[in-house]
Amino acid sequence: MQLPKPGRLIRRVHAGSYMLAWGTIAPDAPTTIAVRSPDFAEGGAIPAIHAAEGEGDNVSPALEWSGVPEGTRQLLLIVEDPDVPLPRPVIHLIARLDPSRTGVGRGELNEEATDTGIVLHPGSFFRVGYAGPNPIRGHGPHRYVFQLFALSKSLPLSVTAKREEIAAASYGSILARGRTWGTFERP
After folding, report:
1. pTM value?
2. What is the DSSP letter of 169?
């Protein structure tokens, strides 16, 4: 008798979309920022080049955005997977960006490729920089949500600040938000 793959046993267990930064740090902020990626269609499969090492090359996808409101002093980009079988989404990236930016190039959010105007913070498992999709094998497709927030102030935080500290510092200063998402699955 063959035992089912571990991912199939917990297939219905998910952190949930309601736990994303989208709904926890700025649930009422206007959704006037349009975010897209030239590397994948919204809701479509994320190419393997952007998946974690072992599954892909762990290269961050390019992103483009428009509709950032006047008065924005900093942009905050958070990438999360709400489909993990954990109590909270896995954080694949936290980055603070210069408000004059209208996007990031492919690979620009990887730890070794950052330039001025991008501050990377630790995500889940203390990883700094982009951490590509790497869902549990057999758990089904996971969504990776790229959330961009326009802030009315620059956050004077250490590069070691984590999501909770960043969320607290952002409270009351989010002018607008936007997002896009893609999927990745390991059969």
Report:
1. 0.91
2. H
